[in-house]
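Mods, move this if it's the wrong board.
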Amino acid sequence: MIKNSGKMLLALAGVALVAGCASPTKLDKPVEVEKKDVTSQTTTTTQPSGDTVAKTDMSSQPVVPITLDRVIYFDFDSYVVKDEFRPIVEAHAKLLKANPSAKEVAEGHTDERGGSEYNLALGQKRAEAVVQQMKVLGVGDSQLEAVSYGKERPAVDGHDESAWAKNRRVELRSK
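Not the wrong board. Structure tokens:
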């Protein structure tokens, strides 16, 4: 009898668990539909009843191409932007000039070698080097900011040259 009571309690617990997972949401309701007009960059959200819920004008928002690279790599103990990464800087400068309300942050990073203070200073110099190139290309001061994270935010974990090379970088982020 005790064995049967244990089985019965286990069965009741299972039923209670399954019942607790039941959702009151009805699945036969129509789903909200989003219509986009690609030519004017506006978005209209419509409920199943046909009522417009929200309309957002996206024309004033900067459009950042998905394929636009955002990382500039540096040589060891250097803050000179290499020629191979200048097209990335130029593309971001062009984007910012075309969208005066857009802002970007240049985040400077270093590899793990060296002290924290040294790496913070080197990361700042790298970020400022990228910002300075964009300013030379005509981007306004108010659109740019340079910050340093030193060695605190590595892109790649590891203790060899391939990892260090990926961590010596400036990342451009929209603000």
